[in-house]
Design a protein that fits this description.
It is a single chain. The protein is of the alpha/beta class and 384 residues long. 40% of the residues lie in helices and 16% in strands.
Length: 384
C-alpha cells in the first residue's frame, strides 16, 4: 500500500506520535509511506534520513482570489499522486484537508482524515461535503465523536466514521534521550517532589489550575516544585503574561517554573515524579500518554477523551476541583508505595492498549478499507 501522509507538525509529538507508531510497525512491510510536511523540522529530517520520501511544502486552501497559485498547487499534487501511484492519502490533521481534497477528487484518490480536534463552526459541513467527501473520518475518542457528530454532513456513508483511540511507539519514546538533567539544571535535590505538566500555553489548558495546585501544596509545607513544559508556536503571549502574574502573586517564582518547549520530551518526563494535566478540553491527550509510558503516575481532569487514556478513575478528577486534585497529589506524595504501584499500572496500561503494534493493527484495518479490501473490524468502534 502506498500512502501519502500529510501533516503540519514537524516534531515527533502530539499529533505525529500515532503516525510514527504506524510507520515503526508497518513501514517497509505492508506499507510504503510518502510524506508531505508543511514545515521543516526534526521529524521530517529523521524520516528522510531513513530514506522515506519526504517533501516540505506549504499547503494553502484553494481560493478564487488566488486562482493561479491555487491551480498550480492542485496541479502539483495531482502530478505527485499520479507519478508515485499513491493508493490513498492520510491527512493527519483535518485543517489540511481542504488543501488536498481537489487533487484527491480529480485523481480518484481516497482520503482518510484524522481528527485531532472537535469539529465546530460548520467546517465539516463545508469541507467534507459532496463531491469532496473523504472515505474515512478517524476520531480518536468516543467523547470527541459525541461532541462532533452533529457537525458531520449527511452525505458521509454509513462506513465512513471510525473511533480508534490513539497510540505511540513506547520503546522509541523511552530510548529517545539527549541526556539532559533537568533537576541538576534547575538545582532541584532528590528529596523534592517534582510535579510536571506539558502542553500548549493556551487558555484551554487551564494551567492556572496547575499553578494553584502547586501553591496549595506549598502552603501545606510539601516539598514540591512545579515544572511547565511548552512554548514555541503553541504559546499565547497574553495568556503567558497572565500566568506569570499569577505565579508572582502567589510568590511561586522559585516553586513553579516554565522550562520552555522540550524536544525530545523524554528527559522532561525522567525529571518529574508526578504528572498533572489540568486542561479543560482534550481529544486524546498525548502528553498524558507519554508520561504514563515513562512510568510517571498521572492525574488529569475528567474531560474529553481523558477517560479513554488512563488506567482507571483514580487518575481522574472533576474539572476545576482543585481541592480534590490537591488531596490526590498529597496522597501520592506521602505514599511512596502507592506512587510505585501507580507507576507500574500506568506503564502496563499504555503497553497493553496504546503501544505501536496495538494501534498499528487498527490502522492497518482502516488502510485495507481505503484500498477497498474487506476489513475485519477488531479493537475499534464504528460509529452508528
Amino acid at each position: 500500500m502506498k500512502v501519502l501522509m500529510v501533516s503540519g507538525n514537524p516534531y515527533l509529538a502530539s499529533t505525529t506520535r500515532p503516525l510514527d507508531a504506524i510507520v515503526e510497525t508497518l513501514g517497509g512491510r505492508t506499507l510504503a509511506p510518502h510524506f508531505i510536511f508543511t514545515r521543516p523540522g526534526p521529524w521530517p529530517d529523521e524520516l528522510a534520513g531513513r530514506c522515506y520520501p519526504v517533501t516540505v511544502r506549504q499547503l494553502n486552501w484553494p481560493s478564487k482570489r488566488s486562482a493561479l497559485s491555487s491551480g498550480w498547487s492542485i496541479s502539483w499534487l495531482v502530478s505527485y499522486l499520479l507519478r508515485h501511484r499513491i493508493d490513498f492519502i492520510h491527512c493527519n490533521e483535518h485543517e489540511h484537508y481542504p488543501a488536498v481534497r481537489h487533487a484527491a477528487y480529480l485523481t480518484g484518490t481516497p482520503v482518510l482524515v484524522s481528527l485531532h480536534y472537535n469539529l465546530e463552526g460548520g467546517f465539516a459541513r463545508w469541507a467534507f461535503a459532496s463531491p469532496y467527501s473523504p472515505r474515512i473520518l478517524q476520531f480518536l475518542s468516543y467523547a470527541q465523536w459525541q461532541l462532533s457528530k452533529a457537525e458531520l454532513p449527511n452525505c458521509l456513508g454509513p462506513n465512513a466514521v471510525y473511533i480508534t483511540g490513539s497510540g505511540l511507539c513506547v520503546a522509541k519514546l523511552r530510548s529517545c534521550s539527549i541526556g539532559r538533567d533537568f533537576r541538576k539544571e534547575l538545582g532541584i535535590d532528590k528529596r523534592t517532589i517534582v510535579i510536571g505538566t506539558a502542553g500548549a500555553i493556551r487558555p484551554r489548558k487551564c494551567m492556572e489550575d496547575f499553578i494553584r495546585l502547586i501553591s496549595n501544596l506549598r502552603q501545606q509545607a510539601r516539598p514540591v516544585i512545579g515544572l511547565i513544559a511548552g512554548g514555541g508556536n503553541s504559546l499565547e503571549k497574553h495568556y503567558k503574561t497572565m500566568l506569570d502574574a499569577l505565579i508572582q502573586e502567589l510568590n511561586l517564582q522559585d516553586a513553579c517554573r516554565f522550562v520552555g518547549f522540550v524536544y525530545p520530551c523524554t528527559d522532561f518526563y525522567k525529571a518529574i515524579d508526578l504528572y498533572v494535566h489540568t486542561s479543560k478540553m482534550e481529544i486524546f491527550c498525548m502528553s498524558l500518554c507519554e508520561a504514563q509510558a515513562m512510568g510517571v503516575p498521572s492525574l488529569a481532569y475528567d474531560v474529553g477523551g481523558n477517560r479513554e487514556a488512563v488506567p482507571d478513575s483514580e487518575c481522574l478528577v472533576p474539572l476545576g476541583a482543585i481541592e480534590e486534585l490537591t488531596s490526590r497529589v498529597e496522597r501520592l506524595i506521602r505514599d511512596k508505595e502507592l506512587r510505585r504501584y501507580r507507576s507500574r499500572l500506568a506503564q502496563e496500561f499504555v503497553e497493553t492498549h496504546l503501544d505501536a503494534p496495538v494501534f498499528a493493527r487498527k490502522m492497518q484495518t482502516l488502510y485495507s478499507l481505503m484500498c477497498e479490501r474487506k476489513p475485519v473490524l477488531v479493537g475499534m468502534t464504528r460509529s452508528s
